[in-house]
Amino acid sequence: MFDFEEELKNLPDQPGVYIMRGSDDTVIYVGKAKILKNRVRSYFRKNASHTPKVTAMVSQVARFEYIITDSEREALALENNLIKKYKPKYNILLKDDKQYPYIKVSINEPYPRVFMVHRMSNDGAKYYGPYMGKGTIKNTLEVIRKIFRPPTCRRRFPQDMGKGRPCLNYHINRCFAPCTGKVSMEEYRRIFFDICRFLEGRHDKLIAELTEEMRAASANMQYERAAVCRDRIRSIRELMDKQKIVDTEHSKDMDVIAAAAADEIAYIEVFFIRGGVVIGREYYRIEHINGADKSEMITDFIKQFYADCDFIPSEIVTETEISDAEAIADRLRHLKGRKVTITAPKRGDKAKMVAMVRMNAEKALSNHKLRLLKEKEKSGVLEELMDMLGLSAPPNRIEAYDISNIQGSDNVGAMAVFEYGRPAKRKYRKFRINSVDGADDYASMREMIYRRFRHGLDEQEKIEAGEMNIRDAKFLPYPDLILLDGGKGHLGAVSSLLEMLDIDIPTYGMVKNDKHRTCGLVGKDGEAEIAAHNSVFKLITHIQDEVHDAAISYFRKLHTAIGSELDNISGIGEKRRTALLTKYGNIDKIKEADISDLAATDSMDMKAAQAVYNYFRSKDDMDEEAF
């Protein structure tokens, strides 16, 4: 039996971490203390004015333990690690496993490139970021490509200069085409130094240099170059007008944090300011806040969020004053290597910035409530579908499959995922069919389904063995319902396969009428017709359209990539490209063909065959993600 009075008497007056355990010995709360004796005793004092959360937690404590540390900074680090390990129910848990990306400019190479990476390296290149928010870095790279038109192909310079024709990007004015051999190394590198200045936010200096270059080019009657400079200046000014600029006098790196809460849900919003410019924003949903106030939520958020963050700003501005601000700032200084301040402004420009961030947090919370209402509506449709098909539970996760090809060439498949009646596009998967020649949709569907569940089984084994985190799984969980774009034939082919894999998931074919419109679902017990006015009809039609579009889009993208790949080969024009695709059907077979076989193709000769053969042996496979 745990003796509270005796253990409370023996608490040390040193810094450390305390661990509260429930009656089943589960860790229910982890905290840190500057003086363990004072902090832990405060929980068990009679008549103490605790918050509802603390009162509920204390009522469930069966025993506690503690770990002494050398300093409060060490206690903060240990507290964060133990929260991650135990995930206690009364701690505010930040579910954030993102790796924020950087933009890398490989200025250390003679012919640099600009692209996205997830980690910085000490390799002499220039790194910019990290970029927060999923679309921020893509938008930035898109702006760079629009203004500076750097090459994005796989050609290597200077080796590939003057070899082959420029790709499509040159013809649509999205690349300055160093592959033509008309761009000197000095000019090439100058464009990438301009990209660096742009990413560093030195827009005024960049505009001044471009203006001078434009005037010089115009004076020398180099009107084409002058026009390029003019267009870049115009694009940069347009971008500056759109960007939100704050604290222009100091141009600090700063994060601004605010929160909004209702019931047991809270949203914490963070604006990321770099060099005086808002480069991105992100919000984080926290569930089961157990009556915690904003100060406590933001305190716990900061401790967890910045513990593993690659970049820590010089200043963190918060909506409310946080507890342990000095100790947390000291730990962040230790992690960053230079001064970090945490402030909660009451007036002035920073207070206005906090108000704007809080407004965004409140909007995120409001959107969450609307989503809940829509999900409630969708759940009614899923329950109706459950009743129609005789399922034991609503199909909250539905997976649909479709095949696409042209006369049996380049068979591909797509998997669309619907969760709670809505498309989960990030969970869609694409497949290049490898084992099927010709237009055999049944065999193609079997291969796709087999690979999908084989991946899932492999991931399940790795998770059970501790080799994979479930968050990293791409094929788990399994669906509650499988829908196939096809009839009884598709259903029979897939059902026997699932039985062989020992997977018991309700499976139906989505039947279409003569007008190629959804008209029902066919299962092992027969066909169920769906009335056109029924809400289930609208859901099934949406699912069928989504998976069909996904398969067609992937086929077109792959086919375009094949054509573009062949266009890169010297001596291969439209006639020879068509002949190769007609004969071989797909790019993989062209890659595998020997020179004599290539030369025997209509309109090809030995020189063209040698060019195709050499090209594919000096190139990697296409950079296309498919499972």
In brief, what are we looking at here?
With 627 residues, this protein is an alpha+beta fold. Helices cover 44% and strands 18% of the residues.
Architecture overview:
With 627 residues, the chain is an alpha+beta fold. It has 19 helices and 19 strands. The strands form 4 sheets. Strands 12, 13, 14, 15, 16, 17, 18 and 19 form an 8-stranded mixed β-sheet that branches. Helix 4 crosses helix 11 (325-336) and helix 8 packs antiparallel against helix 9 (223-242). The chain is globular, with a radius of gyration of 30 Å. The two termini are 56 Å apart. Residues 620-626 have low confidence and may be disordered.
Summarize the helices and strands and which ones pair or pack.
Layout: H1 4-9, E1 16-21, E2 27-33, H2 36-43, H3 52-59, E3 63-68, H4 72-86, E4 102-105, E5 114-117, E6 126-128, H5 136-148, H6 168-171, H7 185-199, H8 203-219, H9 223-242, E7 254-262, E8 265-274, E9 277-287, H10 294-305, E10 315-318, H11 325-336, E11 341-343, H12 349-389, E12 397-406, E13 409-419, E14 422-423, E15 429-432, H13 441-464, E16 481-484, H14 488-500, E17 507-512, E18 518-523, E19 526-529, H15 535-567, H16 574-584, H17 587-592, H18 595-599, H19 606-617
Parallel strand pairs: 7-10, 10-11, 12-16, 16-17
Antiparallel strand pairs: 1-2, 1-3, 4-5, 4-6, 7-8, 8-9, 12-13, 13-14, 13-15, 17-18, 18-19
Helix pairs in contact: 4-11, 8-9, 13-14
